[in-house]
Amino acid sequence: MKAPQDIILRPIMTEKSITAVADKKYTFKVAKDSNKIEIAQAVEALFGVKVQKVNTMNCKGRAKRVGMNAGYQPDWKKAIVTLTEDSKGIEIFESLA
Q1: Are 53 and 85 in contact (CB under 8 A)?
Q2: How far is CA 3 from CA 17, 27, 28, 31, 46, in A?
Q3: I need a labelling partner for 47 at 20 to 30 A (CA). Which of 13, 69, 75, 90 fits?
Q4: 97 half-sphere exposure, CB direction, 13 A CA radius
Q5: What is the C-alpha separation between 46 and 14, in angstroms, rounded?
Q6: Which residues lie below 8 Å from residue 72, measured CB to CB, with a gap of 6+?
Q7: Which domains, ranges and CATH numbers included, belong to the chain?
Q8: Looking at residue 95, what is its pLDDT?
C-alpha cells in the first residue's frame, strides 16, 4: 500500500477549482496508477475530512517545443474530491476562496 503523500501530489489552484470550493469540491493532481478508493482514503488521512465521492480524469500532456526540438509534457491524472456536508473544509483552499 502506498503512503497518502505518494497518492496526492499537489493541489490544483485554478480559477475554476477555487470557485468550486464553495460546493466543497477540491481538485488535486494525483498519481497516475491510483484509483478512486485510494484517493478518498488518502484525502481523509491527510486532511481529516470525510469524502462523499471522487471523480477522476486522465489529462494528456501538452506539446512543447524548444528551438528545433519538439516533444510532449508527461500525461497526468486529476481528481475532484467532493466532501460531505458536515465535513470541515481543507485549509489550503479556504484561504484562497
Answers
A1: no
A2: 25, 19, 16, 11, 10
A3: 75
A4: 17
A5: 21
A6: 61, 62, 63, 64
A7: 4-94 (3.30.70.330)
A8: 75
